[in-house]
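Support reply, case 0932

Customer input (verbatim):
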Amino acid sequence: MPNQVARSYEDAVSEELAALPPETLHTEVERMVRQRIGQQKFREAMLSYWGGTCAVTGLALPDVLRASHAKPWAECESDAERLDVFNGFLLTANLDALFDRFLISFNAQGRLLLSPVLATADLHLLGISPELRLRWLAPEHQSYLQFHRARMQEHSQPIQ
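Our regenerated output:
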């Protein structure tokens, strides 16, 4: 499936770039087109992989589900890594916001990890409990989650 997404992505980028007037083509425009199309393809792949439901809660409201990268788009070494379904989780907007900022992550068994900077009262208001966990976890997710957990630890260190 990740290879299929990458091929579809390259085809869509080529089509969109071919439709642009030649005078608009430059590196920045191509980068923006690639990012927009790539993120759209990644979201479609996440919706398919997770069955249109949140990877944690099972919520099936596409308008509030976000395709979250464990290893951020800008830090990926290739388009294949950016578009890899195992580099992401389909999350509700509140979980996505916390995951994207490395305030939550998941351990190797899929259990929720919380940054020590999060107050218990705030977690309660967000409807987040420490018992939350991923509905399933493939072995291919592990390297991306390991990256994410390391980044979470960096962000949890007190500022000196």
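We compared this against your earlier run and they match. Two observations from our side: Helices lie at 2-19, 27-49, 79-83, 93-100, 120-126, 142-156. The radius of gyration is 17 Å. Please reopen the case if you see a mismatch on your end.
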